Amino acid sequence: MVAKNIIAKLGLTNEELESQVNEFFTDTDTKFLKDSLELKVEQLVPGTILKGKIAAHIGNDVIVEVGLKSEGIVESNEFDNPEDIEIGKAIDVFLEDVDAEGGVILLSKRKADRIRGWENIVTTKKEGDVVRGKVSRRIKGGLLVDIGVPVFLPASQVDIRKPGDISRFIGQEVECKILKIDTEGRNIVVSRRKLIEEERQSSKEKLLGEIEVGQLRKGVVKNIADFGVFVDLGGLDGLLHISDLSWGRISHPSEVVQLDETIECMVIGVDKQHEKISLGLKQKSASPWEEVEKKYSIGSRVKGQVVNIMNYGVFVRLEEGIEGLVHISEMSWTKRVTHPGEMLNLGDEIEVVVLDVNREKQEISLGLKQTETNPWTIAAQKYPAGTIVTAKVSSLTNYGAFVEIEPGIDGLIHISDMSWTKKYNHPSEALQKGQEVSCVVLEVDQEKQRVSLGMKQLTEDPWVRAIPEKYLPGQIVKGSVTKLTNFGVFVELEPELEGLLHISELADHKIEKPQEVVKPGDEVEVKILRVDTDARKIGLSLRRAQWAAEGQMIEVPDEPVTPIEGGEGEKERRGGLEGAGDLGIGLGDWGKKE
Question: Which string of b and e fits 482-496 if b means at least 16 CB within 10 Å?
Fold first, then answer.
């Protein structure tokens, strides 16, 4: 519009104006202008890379001159280093867009750098080459590494071992090997693991060529398991077993070493064929067991700490690497210890006596009770046979009752020593737990730590005088039937005294079972045939008592000579006492001590 006004004021027609212009502009000038305009248009095509120069830095915008007085904008965060934003510095930029109406040209330095970087990688690198770059961030499946262009490092290719959290590599400079270059997709895959494997293979060959048993080698702890530690010796891992970590007891290798720690070990085994190396940490120092017999002589008192409690005893640490066992049987002279935890706790400092030392097996037997006086050494003097004591029933068994004479000293009253005459099926028929009872010391066995006691011995044995004086052969006495057996009947003559009425002495005629004649609870009159004080038996006869009642005073010899019909011949002699076996009369041979 302005140009038309000027032309109108000059009074020139279009033809006249064109004629004058042609007069001043030659063909050469016209061509130069045309080429300049075409270059300008070509340079401002989005998607091209332009040469530019930093003109200004305003806020977050960096003004870049891209030729022909054209200026564009690059965001300052596209510069990795803010110091690179320097006025007059030449840079490559990528033309993003041109806003013709607004006169704004949008540029990108990062895209230009990536394109140039890609071109550089494609022209200078190939698959298998080694590249170095900085890990920029984590993406799905791995990491992005900037080597001039972002390349993909898969998680499986980060390390030769499972790396755990790969995010720890972010910001680190890493060296990798190019696995694949996809020019069409503009994608590059790299591997750090491949490079490490190749380097380790070379180091492994060198290591296997020079390693020998007895050498000291430094390595890095790469893995800790329950059974031991894997140490990277540089090309090959060695196994440091938990038993070779310390001369002392440890429950887990992490008590001694930590992950990624550099340690020095001794080579204790090499299998070059199978590429296996065994390492030892404790072998760097002498075994404390070498002088153990001199330091811990048998009978000496030592102090230690309880470090482990088992069902069978406790382990006591005497010094680092030296532990001894206090067996449960060596904890108390008198107390019945069912579990070591009843007496000791972990960490307890205790004094013990050395009982035995086995250097070859690396074992020391210790005793806790030996630090105290053995009460059994004076028990025999304190409680000689015949001593009357009052004791408390602590427990009952099938064969007798255990009683506490004093704290730590228990005795046994055998079931056969509870009564001279009464037969007990179980001690609970005579005693109860917690009951106090008077008894007599029968014997003290110091070696077996036993005291035998008796209750019946508090009174005279009735079989010595009382019974033979009261019950004479030929007497007729009354009694009560208490029990029937296949060989006869037991008759209670007085409390705790029974006699045997043999089946052959029940009736004049032959009978098959005692219940054909009597039953439990029947009151009967019987004749005493015999009183055997040695066997503690009384033989009775029902039929002979009946004869006497009927006036048939027939003399009966002590030993009948004629077997009873249907009986067991000679076994049925002696007034029917034979055939009863060991079940005779009285307690004497009913209960035998165990």
Answer: eebeebbbbbebeee
Question: What are φ and ψ of residue 7, in 5° steps?
Answer: -60, -40
pTM here is 0.43
47: nearest Cα among 128, 143, 111: 111
CA nearest neighbour of 266 among 207, 209, 205, 218:
218
Spatial distance between the Cα atoms of 5 and 439, rounded to a whole number of angstroms: 148
DSSP H/E element including 23: helix 14-24
DSSP string, 70-117: -EEEEEGGG-SSGGG--TT-EEEEEEEEEETTTTEEEEEHHHHHHHHH
Q: What is the pLDDT of residue 313?
A: 94
AA letter at 469: E
What does the pLDDT read at residue 569? 34
User: Measuring CA to CA, which residue among 198, 196, 205, 176 is closest to residue 188?
Assistant: 176
Indicate if the pLDDT at residue 524 is higher than 50: yes
Sign, CA torsion 269/283/257/348: positive
Q: What is the pLDDT of residues 305-319, one digit of tens each?
A: 999 999 999 999 998
The number of angstroms, rounded, from the C-alpha of 456 to the middle of its chain's C-alpha atoms is 55
Q: CB neighbours (10 Å) of residue 551?
A: 6
Whose structure tokens read 């698959």?
Answer: 127
pLDDT in tens, 196-218: 888 888 888 888 888 889 889 99
Has residue 511 got a pLDDT over 90? no
β-strands 537-541, 497-502 pairing: parallel
**Which pLDDT score is estimated for 83?**
77
The tokens for 88 are 């007059």
Q: Which pLDDT score is estimated for 39?
A: 47
How far, in Å, CA of 479 to CA of 365, rounded? 64
**Token pair for 68:** 């022909």
Which helix (H) or strand (E) segment holds residue 395: the answer is strand 388-397
Burial 306-332 (b: 16+ CB within 10 A, else e): bbebeeebbbbbbeebbbbbbbbebbe
The pLDDT of residue 448 is above 90: no
- Produce one character per residue of 443-462: b if its CB has 16 or more CB atoms within 10 Å, e if not: ebeeeebebbbbbbbeeeeb
Do 52 and 66 contact (CB within 8 A), yes or no?
A: yes
Provide the mean pLDDT of the chain: 80
Decide if pLDDT at 131 tops 70.
yes
DSSP class of residue 415 equals G
Q: Which amino acid is at 410?
A: D
Domains with residue ranges and CATH for the chain: 23-112 (2.40.50.140), 125-195 (2.40.50.140), 211-284 (2.40.50.140), 288-362 (2.40.50.140), 376-458 (2.40.50.140), 466-576 (2.40.50.140)
pLDDT score at 328: 93
Cβ contact 194:179 at 8 Å: yes
- The position carrying tokens 């990536």 is 114
Contact 266, 279 (CB under 8 A): yes
Q: How many residues does the chain have?
A: 594
Residue keyed to tokens 């009285």: 586
